[in-house]
Specification:
The protein is α/β, with parallel strands linked by helices. The termini are far apart. The protein folds into 2 domains: 190 residues, Rossmann fold, CATH 3.40.50; 83 residues, Methionyl-tRNA Fmet Formyltransferase, Chain A, domain 2 (Roll), CATH 3.10.25. The strands form 3 sheets. Strands 3-2-1-4-5-7-8 form a 7-stranded mixed sheet. It is built from 7 helices and 15 strands.
Length: 285
């Protein structure tokens, strides 16, 4: 059905999908749409002697895809490039995309953060066809992941990546043969596209929240050492502080109500048997 394979994306999911595609007896081109200091995709292509391209200019990328005339499967995995209508309409292309949420919930960027911030019990992954609307194409497969009370955005992102690669292995034979039935996404209030500039509650901790919402906010902002979001902030006593570290403690059953203690640089929030301790650093308001 296809004469050529193209992978576009960065990071763990893209590298994993490239490894799956490299086992097929079809020419494979791997494209990264953004520069990175250490590229898993580039290093994998070098090891396997695969064609690799770094194309960060949107117009050049669009021209590349519009020039393709042989039947090609395009696998988009952790990919910032948005396929424009003229590319989607190229009859030579079949484009599928990985998304780290259960669409139609949380389309767009940083979906694990939004699932955690909204205090959802489950998240997951979606492989779907690409159409002109962002993350709205027919669903090929979905798989769920539970969200625990200590799950961070980094935790969920990594689990989604691993599940995405495993799901890709499962759907690939059907996609290659055209032997699957995509499920049309339902419309409604659940569909919302998050943009890269969007940050949960604009990055501000609200001390009027209960402790579980505060926990969800802190964990939704937590990508470990990755600079996905600026540090969460706290406005208190006429100043704004960055929260650069937090810890969950337990064993405070004697507390029935939520209490807050702020003694810079330490912030303590206690409710029931949960305590959050955060370290703060003052910043300009």
């Amino acid at each position: 059905m296809f004469d050529r394979l193209i992978l576009i994306g960065t990071g763990r999911v893209a590298r994993g999908c490239a490894e799956v595609l490299a086992h097929l007896d079809l020419p494979l081109t791997c494209i990264e749409p953004e520069q990175s200091d250490f590229s898993l995709v580039r290093s994998f292509c070098a090891q396997r002697n695969l064609e690799y391209k770094l194309i960060s200019e949107r117009r050049e990328l669009s021209q590349f895809f519009m020039n393709i005339s042989v039947p090609s499967l395009v696998v988009s995995a952790h990919n910032i490039y948005i396929f424009p209508l003229q590319v989607v309409k190229n009859p030579a292309l079949k484009i599928i995309n990985f998304h780290n949420a259960l669409l139609p919930k949380h389309g767009g960027h940083n979906a694990p953060s939004w699932a955690i911030f909204d205090m959802e019990e489950t998240s997951g992954i979606t492989w779907h066809e690409v159409i002109a609307e962002i993350d709205r194409g027919g669903i090929i497969t979905q798989s769920e992941i539970p969200i625990g009370e200590r799950t961070t955005a980094l935790d969920l992102t990594m689990r989604c990546a691993d599940l995405g690669i495993e799901s890709f292995k499962e759907i690939l034979p059907g996609v290659l043969a055209g032997d699957y039935r995509p499920r049309i996404q339902t419309s409604g209030a659940a569909y919302k596209v998050h943009h890269s500039k969007d940050v949960p509650n604009d990055g501000m901790l609200d001390l009027s929240w209960d402790i579980r919402k505060i926990s969800a906010f802190l964990r939704s902002m937590d990508y470990g050492k990755l600079s996905v979001f600026p540090p969460p902030r706290l406005g208190i006593l006429g100043n704004v502080f960055n929260l650069h570290k937090y810890t969950f403690l337990e064993g405070f059953d004697e507390h029935d109500r939520q209490s807050i203690a702020f003694d810079p640089p330490k912030l303590s929030i206690i409710s029931g048997n949960i305590q959050i301790e955060a370290a703060c650093a003052r910043r300009d308001a």
